[in-house]
Amino acid sequence: MSELKPTATTPYFTFQFALLCLSNFLFATSFNMMIPELPGYLTSLGGAEYKGLIIALFTLMAGISRPFSGKLTDTVGRVPVMIFGSLVCVVCSLLYPMLTSVAGFLFLRFLHGFSTGFKPTATAAYGADVVHESRRGEALGALSIGYTLGSSAGPMIGSYLVDYFSYNVMFYVSAGFALASVGILYNVKETLKDPQPFKLQLLTINKTEIFEKTALRPAIITLLLCFSIGTILTIAPDLSEHLGLHNKGLFFAFFTIASLLIRVVAAKVSDRFGRVPVLLVSSFVLVIALIVLAFSNSVPLMMIGSVIYGLSWGINSPALSAWTVDLCAPENRGKAIASMYIALEIGIGTGAIFSAWIYNNNADHFTYAFLLPGFFALLAFFLLIRWNKKAKRAQSFSQG
Is 192 helix (H, G, I), strand (E, B) or coil? Predict the structure, then answer.
């Protein structure tokens, strides 16, 4: 339970909230700057056939750690969990230049997943603490702006550092951004009432603590939609290179900027019209984006697909988080958000593995690799239609 009891008119964008947004920016920049360059780096180590594991191992660890991060967020507090997630980025970024075998690299990617397994869970719970439920989508959308900006700036910075310096310089700069994120978090006030001191017993997870049942529907939609993220993160750098775009980070910059621009408006829309109607629109837009990417044969067409993809995620990301929090009890916010993120990690991980398997370093297979997540997004669209109809019938029945 939060110490704060905000009303519909309570301002949430305080100095503390701004600090958290800045920390999000630094954290997201830290690990996103590596993403477009890691396939090339792994190839240079002699592990080209393991490209699908770059994202899959990262998300596997993130998924495994979610039940722990959810429990600790609801017991130890939001801020300590965020600090731990950022510290993992610091340590792993410093170790990449030291473990230069394929096995060492893949081990670090697995370990690095702790970062996103912890920090986003606690961050979303913090955002839900400081705002009234009628403005939850708006606040969570605003909180993700820093993350989105980091996701945009990071890949461009990473590609620049590799082009003009080296992979090792990129890793060290990544560590610096993550360390700055940690420093800011020490100035953020805890919002959990009566947080417990950390003890090893808190790491014991029973089966009822693994998944919050109220998060089932948001988790299903998250899994289906996030399959596309694994695909994008794994093969978009190769598509950029194939089409002649030297700075592979530009693809990620375009879709994250588009996501940022639409997010400000879309977050408020979900508060007004409901989470499911907004997710219906976003899932359909995602289908269009993946079709465009599947048939991209030029840089301009690929960038159009990137922008449409960004628009879809700018719409659905705050709505998914707000929907998850809407359905759970306040004392289970961390657990519910962690449950939704478990689905996110499964979606990203399986998307990465299957897209790499379908693509198989063959440019003729890009179309099939992008159409598969398009099918899952279409499935999400039809599920949302069905649930929306049921909700409307139930509402009509209760009013009648």
Answer: strand
The pTM assigned to this predicted structure is: 0.75
Radius of gyration, CA atoms only, the chain: 20
Quickly list DSSP for 263-326: HHHHHHHHHHH-HHHHHHHHHHHHHHHHHHHHT--SHHHHHHHHHHHHHHHHHHHHHHHHHHHH
Q: State how far the alpha carbon of 329 is from the alpha carbons of 12, 158, 336, in Å.
A: 21, 40, 9
- Helix (H), strand (E) at residue 336: helix 333-359
Is the CB of residue 31 less than 8 Å from the CB of residue 86?
Answer: no
Rounded to whole angstroms, the Cα distance separating 337 from 126 reads 11
Q: Is the alpha carbon torsion for 5, 191, 340, 30 positive or negative?
A: positive
For 245, other C-beta atoms within 10 Å of its C-beta total 16
Is the separation of the CB atoms in 352 and 55 below 8 Å? yes
According to CATH, the topology of domain 15-197+207-399 is Growth Hormone; Chain: A; (1.20.1250)
- Token pair listed for 393: 């019938």
Contact 109, 53 (CB under 8 A): yes
- DSSP letters, 212-237, are -GGGHHHHHHHHHHHHHHHHHHHHHH
For residues 170 and 329, what is the distance between their CA atoms, to the nearest angstrom?
42
pLDDT per residue as tens digits for the range 337-382: 888 888 988 898 899 889 989 998 899 999 999 999 999 999 999 9
Torsion sign across C-alpha atoms 171, 313, 286, 215: positive
Opening angle at CA 332, ends 328 and 338, nearest 5? 90
Task: Residue 277: name the closest of 147, 129, 127, 391 by CA.
Answer: 391
Burial of 299 (0-12, 13-18, 19+ CB in 10 A): middle
- Give the separation between CA 332 and CA 125, rounded to whole angstroms: 9
What is the token pair recorded at 346? 């499964």
- Do 336 and 214 contact (CB within 8 A), yes or no? yes
Q: Tell me how crowded residue 187 is: count the other CB atoms within 10 A of its CB.
A: 12
322/272 Cα distance (integer angstroms): 12
Give 370's Cβ-side CA count (13 Å radius). 26
pLDDT at position 399: 57
Q: Show the tokens assigned to 87.
A: 């510290």
